[in-house]
Each structure stands twice: as C-alpha cells, then as structure tokens.
Design brief:
The protein is mostly helical. 71% of the residues lie in helices and 0% in strands.
C-alpha cells in the first residue's frame, strides 16, 4: 500500500472550511464566537507557517551572498552603502518585490487583494 503525502496547507484549509461550514452553525449561540475565533486563529497560523516568504528570502540572499552568509540587515546596509556587486544588482528589484508579496500574503492578504494581486 502506498502512502500519499497530504499537503499541510490543503489539510488546514479543509479543517477551517469544515469548522466554518459544518461545526460553527451547529454550535449553541454562546459558543459560536469562540468557534469563529478558533477558525480565525487557524487561518492566521496557516499563513504564518514557514513557506513562501522564507523561501523568497533565501533565494534573494543566496543570489547575492555566499550560501548562508547574507541577511536582510546586511542587504539593507549594502544597498545604503552602494556596495552590492554590480553583476548581482540586475534582478534585485524583482526579488525584493517577490519577497514583499510573499510576506504580505501572511501579514496582510487583504491589501494584496485590494491591489489585484492574488493572495
């Protein structure tokens, strides 16, 4: 028998949808607020799991620095001082945009949707 790997995001989405669609309506009125809070907390926690933002940060830093040597603080200093290697500046703006969008998917997905960016 082969075991299929279940996508954690899909599993959490299913749990949240089930909680909101099936469980919350069946709760007594005095418990619905607590149930809604649990659903919201699960949604926030799911968005906060390491994933796209962390991967975008690693890609950005690994393109500019030796693996494991860079940080966003170092990148900010290098940008201010104008000390980034010339050959590595080309895709910097797009890489920073990708990182920003990945972080906003976690911290403020409504903002992205208001700008027509899929979140």
């Amino acid at each position: 028998m082969t075991t299929r790997r279940v996508d954690p995001d899909a599993l959490l989405d299913l749990a949240i949808d089930t909680l909101r669609a099936d469980v919350l309506p069946a709760l007594p009125p005095e418990q619905r607020y607590a149930g809604a809070m649990i659903a919201n907390a699960l949604e926030i926690a799911r968005r906060g799991l390491p994933g796209e933002a962390e991967a975008a940060e690693w890609v950005l830093l690994d393109d500019l620095y030796d693996d494991g040597e860079g940080s966003l603080a170092q990148l900010a200093r290098d940008i201010r001082e104008g000390s980034l290697p010339q050959g590595k500046i080309g895709g910097l703006a797009q890489s920073l945009r990708t990182l920003l969008i990945a972080e906003l998917r976690v911290t403020n997905p409504k903002f992205l949707r208001s700008r027509g960016i899929a979140g």
